[in-house]
Amino acid sequence: MYNPKSLKAEEFINDLEIRETLAFADENKDNLELIDSILEKAKERKGLSHREASVLLACDNEDKIKEMYNLAEQIKKDFYGNRIVMFAPLYLSNYCINGCKYCPYHISNKHIARKKLTQEDIRREVIALQDMGHKRLAIEAGEDPQNNPIEYILECIKTIYSIKHKNGAIRRVNVNIAATTVEEYRMLAEAGIGTYILFQETYNKESYEELHPYGPKSNYAYHTEAMDRAMEGGIDDVGLGVLFGLELYRYEFAGLLMHAEHLEAVHGVGPHTISVPRVKHADDIDPDAFDNGIDDEIFAKLCALIRISVPYTGMIISTRESKQVREKVIRLGVSQISGASRTSVGGYCEPEPEDENSEQFDVSDKRTLDEVVKWLMEMGYIPSFCTACYREGRTGDRFMSLCKSGQIQNCCHPNALMTLKEFLVDYASEDTKRIGEALIEAELNNIPKEKVREICKENLVKIEQGIRDFRF
Predict the structure, then answer these.
(1) What's the CA gap between 225 and 85, in Å, rounded?
(2) Is the pLDDT of residue 424 over 80?
(3) Is the model's pLDDT at 307 over the cut of 80?
(4) Has domain 77-366 been given CATH number 3.20.20.70?
C-alpha cells in the first residue's frame, strides 16, 4: 500500500501508485479545466503533489506549457532571486565494488585507471580549486569499504577544511557517497558536512535491480531508505536526484516527487537540493545503450515542473550539460551550478594523460570558472559563493521555514554580493571584474532593509582592504 509516512521504500515509493498516477495523467492531459486548477494551486507557491505535477508533465498544450515555464521562472525569482550558487565536485577515489551498468567505475571495468587521492594530493587539488575562487565542494567517491572506508572520507573532509591558501578557503563540503549506516551518517554530521547527496538513479525497482546486478548498491530498499537514516544520524540537509535516461522519465519524475513528499511527511523537511543529471558518455558507457533518453525540450520541462512542484528546493545542474542547455534551465528553476569541473580523480592540478583516464563522465561545459561567472553576470545573475546558512546553523527546518516564507533573501542577497566581491578582488580577470563591480553597484539597491544595505556597503569596502568572510 502507498504510504508517504512509511519508512519502507516500497510503500513511500509505491509502484502501483506511480502507475495509477501516470494513467490518471494520460486521462487528463487535455483536461484544461483541471490543468488550470493545478496551475492556480501552483501559484500559491506551496508546491504540487506527484499526481498533480504528473498531469502537467503529460500536458502537451503549448499555451499551458508556456504558462508552466513563466510560473517556474517567477517562483525561482520569488524564492532564490537572481542568485546562482557556485560549486565544484572533487573526486577522491574511483575504486568501487558495485556493478552499476551506467557508471564507468563498475568493478568489471578493467581498463579505467583506478586512482585514490592521498591527503597531500587533496591538498594540491583544493589549493587549485581555491585559486580558481571556489568556496564550496561536493566530494565524490566510489563504494569500496577497503579503499574508501568512512575513516578515509572523514580524514579527507578534515584536510579540506584545514587548507587556507592566500585568501582561499573551502567553507562548505557537501558529500556524495554511497548509502551507509545511521552511525556513519552521524560521523559525517559531526565532521561538519553541508548537504548529504545521494542519487537514486531510478525509482523503478525492477529496473534498479537490473541496472545494479551485484554489489552493496544492488539492495534497492537499503539505498532508497538512506535519506531517512541520514536524518536519523543528524544530517538535516539532504539532496535527491535521478539519472534521467535510465527509465521512463515520467515514472522517475513521479517517484522523485514522492520521495520529496515522504521526507516532508516524516521529517518535516523536504530535500535541500534536487539534481537533474542525464546519462552521458563515459569510459565503457554508451548513453545510446539506454533507450529512455530525453531531449532538451523534455529536460527543460522537467526542470520547470520540479521548480513548480518543490518550490523551496535548490536545483542543481552540472557540467554534464552544455552551456546552451544550462542557459535555458537556469531561467526555469536551477539555483546551483558547477563551474570548471573535473570528473577525474586528481584532475584539477594537471590534465590527465589519455591512457590514465579516470573520469566518471564526459564534461560538456569546459569553460573556466571566470568565464562561467562572467557569463552568468552578463545574463543578469549574481554568481554566489555564499555558505552562510550552513555556517550560521540555518539548515534543515530552520532553512526551510525561512525559504518558504521568502525571508531567506534578506540574508542571501547581501551575502551573495559580498562573496562575489571576494571573487572579483582575488581571482577575476579584468573584464569579469569590471562587469561584476557594475552588477554589485546596481544590486545593492535591491537590498530591502536600509541597515543591511549600509552594512553590506561597509563590508564591500573592507573586502577591498583585504578582510574576508563577512556574512549575515
Answers:
(1) 28
(2) yes
(3) yes
(4) yes
> CA 27, CA 57: separation in Å to the nearest integer?
12
- pLDDT value at position 390? 77
- Considering only residues 437 and 322, tell me which one the structure prediction assigns the higher pLDDT: 437
Could you tell me the residue ranges of all domains in the chain?
77-366
Q: Which residues pair with 139 in a beta bridge?
A: 90, 175
Asked whether residue 29 carries a pLDDT value surpassing 80, the answer given is yes
Per-residue pLDDT, 282: 64
pLDDT score at 285:
62
What nine digits make up the cell of 87? 560549486
Residue 406 has pLDDT above 90, yes or no: no
The partner residues of 141 in beta bridges, in order of sequence, read 93
Quick one: CA dihedral 450, 452, 456, 462, positive or negative?
A: positive
70-102 pLDDT, tens digit each: 999 999 999 999 999 999 999 999 999 999 999
261-272 b/e with 16+ CB inside 10 Å = b? Answer: bbbbebbebbbb
Secondary structure string (H, E, C) spanning the chain = CCCCCCCCHHHHCCHHHHHHHHHHHHHHCCCHHHHHHHHHHHCCCCCCCHHHHHHHHHCCCHHHHHHHHHHHHHHHHHHHCCEEEEEEEEEEECCCCCCCCCCCCCCCCCCCCCCECCHHHHHHHHHHHHHHCCCEEEEEECCCCCCCCHHHHHHHHHHHHHCEECCEECCEEEEECCCCCHHHHHHHHHCCCCCEECCCECCCHHHHHHHCCCCHHHCHHHHHCHHHHHHHCCCCCEEEEECECCCCHHHHHHHHHHHHHHHHHHHCCCCCEEECCECCCECCECHHHCCCCCCHHHHHHHHHHHHHHCCCCEEEECCCCCHHHHHHHHHHCCCEEECCCCCCECCCCCCCCHHHCCCCCCCCCCCCHHHHHHHHHHCCCEEECCCHHHHCCCCHHHHHHHHHHCCCHHHHHHHHHHHHHHHHHHCCCHHHHHHHHHHHHHHHHHCCCHHHHHHHHHHHHHHHCCCCCCCC
Residue written as grid cell 590534465? 351
Q: State the Cα–Cα distance between residues 11 and 371, nearest whole angstrom.
A: 46
Q: pLDDT (tens digit, 9 = 90+) per residue, 240-251?
A: 999 999 999 999
Q: CB–CB of 436/424 below 8 Å?
A: yes
C-alpha cell of residue 374: 562572467
Our CA angle for 420, 421, 423, nearest 5°, is 65
